[in-house]
Design goal:
By secondary structure, the chain is an alpha/beta fold. The protein contains twelve helices and nine strands. Its EC number is 2.1.1.297.
């Protein structure tokens, strides 16, 4: 069987598992061949199917995410290594970087903080965007910290990025942070504990990075009151939110003295709350 034929069959087989069955099949085939997807599509469609493809396809049919199967995920301009110890970076989260680029036009940030860095996605994307910046990634999981630091070193940002253990649910968690910061980014857990998630998420991604109480707001209640003491006077904080959480998170921001704005993702859903300290009158 040729690669082209196998991809058609695989896309059909994955139709009940994935919203993007053809793309998933192509990414798995490229991984089996040890090439990029673009090389696969341009030059290798008539090749014979490699023996390892069947096992990769079987894993995807069991709802394992493609990123965990291949160990890689593209985010912003970067390719990050990922494992089941970290949340898979999603294109929705790129909304935070887009919001930061639009909000910071005149004075590029020099010091960046990423709260709950996971794979390092937000911090490393920001460092790629602003070459003069340095940043710190805070993470409660030591395994995730190692992955984030490995990504930073592999991408050449090791001297500009420092990954540091921290848990915002513990008193005094921010005392060891050498602020203030010009830009704070955060994709906290924000899923309600009773939410029904797709099997590839519920069965494979770390629950500690997903769930945040009955309303999905627990972590915002810890984080937002601490942000004023971490931000520089003209700094901004940008937090990812669930599509229905704009009003609740905005209220928490206003209660902590912030001017609040919101940015939508490409699907038109509320995705990033932007917090600026209210100027003194």
């Amino acid at each position: 069987m040729t690669v082209s034929e196998a991809l058609r069959t695989a896309a059909h087989d994955l139709a009940g598992v994935s919203d993007t069955p053809r793309l998933d099949a192509e990414l798995l085939m490229a991984d089996a061949l040890g090439i990029t997807r673009s090389t696969l599509l341009l030059n290798r469609m008539r090749d014979q199917v490699p023996p390892s493809f069947a096992a990769l396809l079987a894993r995807r049919q069991m709802h394992e995410p493609v990123a965990y199967i291949t160990g890689r995920q593209d985010f912003w301009t970067l390719t990050l290594n990922v494992t089941p110890a970290v949340l898979i970076p999603r294109s929705d989260s790129e909304t935070l970087i887009e919001a930061a680029v639009d909000a910071i036009k005149c004075r590029p940030p020099q010091r960046i903080l990423d709260l709950g860095t996971g794979s390092g996605a937000l911090l490393l994307a920001a460092l790629a965007q602003w070459p003069e910046a340095r940043g710190i990634g805070i993470e409660a999981s030591d395994v995730a910290l190692a992955i984030a630091q490995s990504n930073a070193d592999r991408l050449g940002y090791g001297e500009r990025a420092r990954m540091q253990h921290g848990n915002w649910r513990h008193p005094g968690w921010h005392d060891a942070l050498p602020g203030p910061f010009d830009l704070i980014l955060c994709n906290p857990p924000y899923v309600e504990t009773t939410a029904a998630l797709a099997p590839q998420v519920m069965q494979h991604e770390p629950h500690s990075a997903l769930f945040a109480g009955d309303e999905g707001l627990d972590d915002y209640r810890f984080l937002i009151p601490a942000l004023p003491r971490l931000l520089a006077p003209c700094g901004i904080a940008i937090l990812e939110i669930g599509a229905s959480q704009r009003l609740a998170v905005s209220a928490l921001g206003s209660a902590s003295g912030f001017d609040v704005d919101c940015r939508q993702d490409l699907a038109g859903h509320d995705r990033a709350v932007i917090l600026r300290q209210t100027p003194p009158t």
